[in-house]
Amino acid sequence: MSMKNILCIGAGYVGGPTMAVIADRCPDIKVTVVDINERRIAAWNSDELPIYEPGLEEVVKRCRSRNLFYSTDIPKGIREADIIFVSVNTPTKTFGAGAGKAADLQYLEKTARSIVEHAENGKIVVEKSTLPVRTAQAMSRILHSNTKNLKFQILSNPEFLAEGTAIRDLENPDRVLIGGMETPEGEAAIEELVSVYARWVPRERIITTNLWSSELTKLVSNALLAQRVSSVNSISALCERTEANIDEVTGAAGKDSRIGPKFLKASIGFGGSCFKKDILNLVYLCGHYGLPEVADYWEQVIRMNEFQSRRFVGNMLAAMFNTVADKRIAIFGFAFKADTGDTRESPACSVCLQLLEEHARLNIHDPKALGNAKLDLEGATGEINYLEDPYEAAEGAHAIAVMTEWKSFRELDYRRIFDSMEKPAFLFDGRNILDHAALYEIGFNVYPIGKKALTHF
Ligand code: NAD
Ligand code: UDX
């Protein structure tokens, strides 16, 4: 096979790791990643990569300058590419029609227009970003507005990686989904992209569909996953009222092979850049296509998620004698999940803001996300300290609130922590990751999610 040139526009959480793995698995393909953000590109070219993912650094170091290049020269990248992945951000619109729900497609459109401007031959353009169903139609119209008579094939190839396990997910995906036009040219383009993934993904895990199914599948996959978390969290509230134990309930329910054991962990709520945004997008689309009942059904997943973090703070207040004013609270974890420094839509942020409103003083500790936490809470009123050391964070605190399921939190010396805290000492485990009986033995008043609290009074 001849050397292909792949370009990815957008060097973020998706474009960066995805292209690194393609370059790693396809040494005969030249992969270039471009971005308008010069600082991000400089970071990809440095020893301090712009994002943290286990295993990412090794892959990048192996391929960089061999067949993996990061650049800000977007026109050159477009001219040279045979296949262009578009992996720009598609956030929720904050203005105008559809504000707060619809996807903001301005970055996507700008990308399509720069492809039109700089391309000198026809190309395969791959939607990697998560997009509303039927975006490929708009994309095709923009690309074919070129006056050079160039022909483009548009494919949809949504990304299913989860943060914190991105490299593992990319190297060993459950499935790769490729949608294209149902024409001979469309099918040829699909096969071209299949041949890239087939270098390392078993053929039966590469699914090909029409464009619209592929675009919609991405929104649906995230909606179904988030719905599972909201369903479990709703039941965690009922467990707390009835002395049922959420881990026992989901453990037993998940044994049913139709339900399955994964993604049933109660928490303070889901976060991350995708779930809320993609459900809002789905809700907007359902409204747009005249299906208000379907829209309401999915919107409830987000409402339940917001209820869960409010409920958590409500439980903290109730346990701590209805006031946290002036009390120091150690926040263990700020990332939206473990093994990432990403804090986008982190429920920890919402909990912190609610506690600050109650005039609590916060000591925030996170192994990877302190930098982002500072940015997220910039401008928030109240005392906030950011601490690298969890023991320092807990010193003199009335309570610890576990927000992220970092493994390191399980390995701390909780007797030492207890001795350094104000009494009575409270521990609210928003992830159910600690040994609650052992903490109770040490002297903590322990409040898990969806389980009976263990208190000394
Ligand atoms: P991101 O914000 O980390 O990265 C997007 C990058 O695109 C930014 O660096 C931005 O500067 C760049 N960009 C924007 N406009 C540009 C332009 N005109 N030209 C060149 N570069 C431009 O976003 P992300 O998390 O990588 O997500 C990208 C897409 O992938 C989104 O649609 C998202 O929904 C989807 N997605 C994200 C995840 C995830 O876990 N983060 C997983 C699956 C899918
Ligand atoms: C998600 C999808 O999993 C991924 O396929 C898609 O490509 C991007 O969006 P991500 O947001 O990175 O990935 O993380 P994920 O592992 O899905 O977790 C999302 C949120 O749900 C996190 O805040 C996590 O803590 C929470 N969660 C997850 C729970 O509260 N309970 C669970 O059982 C699982």
Automatic annotation (TrEMBL):
Report the source organism: Victivallis lenta
Output the lineage of the source organism: Bacteria, Pseudomonadati, Lentisphaerota, Lentisphaeria, Victivallales
Active site per UniProt? C274 (nucleophile)
Name of the protein in question? UDP-glucose 6-dehydrogenase
- SUPFAM superfamilies from the xrefs? 6-phosphogluconate dehydrogenase C-terminal domain-like, NAD(P)-binding Rossmann-fold domains, UDP-glucose/GDP-mannose dehydrogenase C-terminal domain
Q: Extract the Gene3D superfamilies matched here.
A: Cytochrome c1, transmembrane anchor, C-terminal (1.20.5.100), NAD(P)-binding Rossmann-like Domain (3.40.50.720)
Reaction equation(s) it catalyzes? UDP-alpha-D-glucose + 2 NAD(+) + H2O = UDP-alpha-D-glucuronate + 2 NADH + 3 H(+)
SMART domains, A to Z: UDPG_MGDP_dh_C
Functional note: Catalyzes the conversion of UDP-glucose into UDP-glucuronate, one of the precursors of teichuronic acid.
Q: Which residues bind substrate per the record? A: 159-163, 218-222, 258, 265-271, 336-337, 431
Any one Pfam family here would be: UDPG_MGDP_dh_N
